Amino acid sequence: MSAPPRQRPRPHPADLLGSARSRLPRYLRDLAELVAIDSGSYSRHGVNAVADWVQTRLTSLGFTVERIRPPAVDGVGRLSGLRTGDVLIARKPGRLAEADGGCRILLAAHMDTVFEDGTAARRPFTLDGTRAHGPGVSDDKGGMLAGLTALELLQQEEAEQYAELVFLATPDEEIGSPASRRITEEVARGMHYALGLECARENGDLVLARKGVADFRLTVTGRAAHAGIEPERGANAALAAAHLVVALQALNGRWDDGTVNVGVVRAGHRPNIICSEAELHLEVRAVTAAGLRRVGRAIEDAAASPAVPGTTVTVEQLDDCPPMEATRASHHMLAAAAQAAAAIGFPLNATSTGGVGDANLIAGTGVPVLDGLGPIGGADHSPHEWLDTASVPERIALLAALVVSLGDNGVDSDIGGNKGA
Question: What PROSITE patterns does the entry give (predicted)?
Answer without folding.
Answer: ARGE_DAPE_CPG2_1 (PS00758)
